[in-house]
Amino acid sequence: MKRRDLIKRLEAAGYKADRSGDHTIYEKPGARPVQVPNHRELNENTAKAILKAAGLK
């Protein structure tokens, strides 16, 4: 999955970028923050784990 597609899904769910480094941390009030690696393409298992942690899948 492309990183930008994953970010679009997170932002549509109300997540906003909080801080950046090797990973970008996305936070949403009342929800657990999620980390997105700074890679152009993400492994499908990694993308699924991020979406699951965000409560989107």
Reconstruct the topology from this structure:
Layout: H1 3-12, E1 16-20, E2 23-27, E3 34-37, H2 44-53
Antiparallel strand pairs: 1-2, 2-3
Please provide a written account of the structure.
This protein is of the alpha+beta class and 57 residues long. It has 2 helices and 3 strands. It has one domain: 2-Layer Sandwich (Metal Transport, Frataxin, Chain A), CATH 3.30.920.30. It is 35% helix and 25% strand. The longest helix is centred in the first third of the chain and has 10 residues, at 3-12.
Brief sketch in words of this structure:
The chain is α+β, with helices and mostly antiparallel strands and 57 residues long. Helices cover 35% and strands 25% of the residues.
Helical content, roughly? 25-40%
- Strand order within the widest beta sheet: 1-2-3
| Mean of all residue-level pLDDT scores | 96
Determine and state the CATH class. Alpha Beta
CATH-scheme architecture: 2-Layer Sandwich
CATH superfamily: Hypothetical protein
How many separate structural domains?
1
Main beta sheet, described? 3 strands, antiparallel
SSE ordering:
HEEEH
First-to-last CA distance:
14 Å
Strand count: 3
Number of helices: 2
Please report which band the strand proportion falls in: under 5%, 5-15%, 15-25%, 25-35%, 35-45% or over 45%: 15-25%
What is the SS-derived class?
A: alpha+beta
Weakly predicted, low-confidence segments:
none
The CATH topology is what?
Metal Transport, Frataxin, Chain A
Gyration radius (Cα, Å) is 10 Å
Spatial shape: globular
